[in-house]
């Protein structure tokens, strides 16, 4: 980062600090009688669980890249916990969950600088927990989504340009999608879409943004790819699997049967996908490996995310198996193209999320979750599946094209791609003057 850009960034932080004094968000006397202690305790736990997923992702991605890029890749995940938190506090939460403007975006003034959050009325769909807990639970989703994208352009992006890009992504892609999908007045919510914990908002958005980024930044100059630490990948998978309990079951917003169902379906789908991946590799003549098992587990976790609180346990087994096979085939197809999606973010997160969205439209049942208005295709009803399909296409086009625009804007302000020399010496040293 140049001295000039550092001064600009420091000036922005000073401005935010001044705004914090102007909008202190001092609460009036808070009436806690309507909060449920069990729900609040569970959501506090779930919030911590989701946060641990981002360091988990850092290890998952960091172990897959070349040794000279481990620190830079891991830092790209960790920095999201700092930068996206600032963006969320200033205006992100308002854009995602503020007063709706035509179902597309929230008003930036509703919760600007977290004003009226400490003493605010509980969120409509989470009435038994404090609004501030809901806001910071949702923050953890906003943090990990841009971090997921980093696997697509690993080993070739300038750090300062990456910082600008993830801010733009959060403001112009993630927040509008979260509003449209999870706000009661959101356009997709009114359309009838079901996305329990982020198949659209998190995984499809990250997957399509990853594909656009891989295409825009073009291939790395070095084609040789040797994972630095497969043990890091195993550790990262374990942290992701552990944290995903909060990611999916926490999205019930209650310590109830739906949360328990989400835990069960999440565990089942990830296990089925992990085992299916290594068996599918064996069928293709490959030896079962740690990397395959880890990738398969994550694909299963991705795919069950939109369906976790809507389907049965046997159905989640099918979701995991189908997603694992489809993503494995997509990884194989991608490897035969010129698209350098370094860590196969699109085949795993993007495709896994889309499979999960469609299978939600197949298996969702009102007998599992009373919030399901239209049952899935499996039960003889077609509306939900059609809604899921149309939403899938619309969101895919929106995210893919919007990401190209944001990448171009970022590139015009500061070049995205490192030089050939910087890439050769490794981003750990060229971007951060550090070595593993």
Architecture overview:
- The chain has helices at 3-22, 37-62, 70-97, 131-149, 159-182, 187-191, 199-217, 230-249, 257-283, 290-304, 313-335, 345-363, 383-413, 420-425, 427-432, and strands spanning 100-101, 105-106.
- The chain is globular, with a radius of gyration of 21 Å.
- It is built from 15 helices and two strands.
- It has a two-stranded antiparallel sheet.
- α7 packs antiparallel against α12 (345-363), α10 (290-304) crosses α12 (345-363) and α12 runs antiparallel to α13.
- With 436 residues, the protein is an all-alpha fold.
- A hairpin with a 3-residue loop joins β1 and β2 (105-106).
- The protein has one domain: Orthogonal Bundle (Ammonium transporter fold).
Bin the strand percentage: under 5%
At the fourth CATH level, what is the homologous superfamily?
Ammonium transporter AmtB like domains
**In terms of per-residue confidence, which ranges show pLDDT below 50 for 5 or more consecutive residues?**
none
Over all CA atoms, what is the radius of gyration? Answer: 21 Å
Q: Average pLDDT value?
A: 93
Widest sheet: strand order? Answer: 1-2
- Tally of separate helices: 15
Overall shape: it is: globular
Protein structure class: mainly alpha
Helix content: 55-70%
N- and C-termini, Cα separation: 20 Å
SSE series: HHHEEHHHHHHHHHHHH
